[in-house]
Amino acid sequence: xxxxxxxxxxxxxxxxxxxxxxxxxxxxxxxxxxxxxxxxxxxxxxxxxxxxxxxxxxxxxxxxxxxxxxxxxxxxxxxxxxxxxxxxxxxxxxxxxxxxxxxxxxxxxxxxxxxxxxxxxxxxxxxxxxxxxxxxxxxxxxxxxxxxxxxxxxxxxxxxxxxxxxxxxxxxxxxxxxxxxxxxxxxxxxxxxxxxxxxxxxxxxxxxxxxxxx
Length: 214
Ligand code: ADP
Ligand code: ADP
Ligand code: ZN
What we know:
This protein is of the alpha/beta class. The protein contains nine helices and seven strands; from the N terminus they run E-H-E-H-H-H-E-H-E-H-E-E-H-H-E-H. It has a five-stranded parallel β-sheet with strand order 2-3-1-4-7, sandwiched between helices. A two-stranded antiparallel ribbon has the order 5-6.
């Protein structure tokens, strides 16, 4: 099963993608996590990506598309995957569609997690991220067992620089201009499913499993 997650920054794509990956035993592929790992390791890609991410802008398609096509060609992705944070532009979606088409494959579901802009800034300022394993928490809605420490790997949690309100506003503008058109793109492709992302995390997940099937 090949699934992509759509939605504004902070809508809950990563949170739900992890649950989908666990439930359906497919890899969770997050471009944001891949870029952050590259930044942490000081790679060339990381240096380039950081300059865009810090400003709340998208990393250029040239740096993003090949990376994802390469990742979904790995053996562990043969049975499917959940893509989180990709595609984010129409050219990225087209690159993905074409890469899949060349192998006789397609995306099965594009799950759009809907959350109004008003809710996003508070969600993001409460988000705490583990840069070691990619897990995310929220200081009110999804707390770790031990404050400030990742349940999964025991590392320290941080407020991402790009989750500060000024940058979040910019990211929302970028979302509306460049990513929102993907909703129509996947609707036309006949694979769009929408869920109300303002509900409790587990209720959102129940709605998603109804769409994806047991
Ligand atoms: P969120 O889901 O909270 O928006 P992500 O971790 O998905 O955060 O992305 C963080 C940043 O990484 C984005 O603001 C953007 O700069 C960059 N990024 C991630 N995925 C992509 C992508 N597919 N195309 C371009 N930039 C991306
Ligand atoms: P995205 O990947 O779309 O940027 P995340 O999954 O990282 O979003 O979620 C953003 C923040 O909101 C995190 O702090 C997360 O714990 C929290 N969150 C996710 N889903 C919900 C929900 N349904 N209700 C309340 N908070 C949520
Ligand atoms: Zn962790």
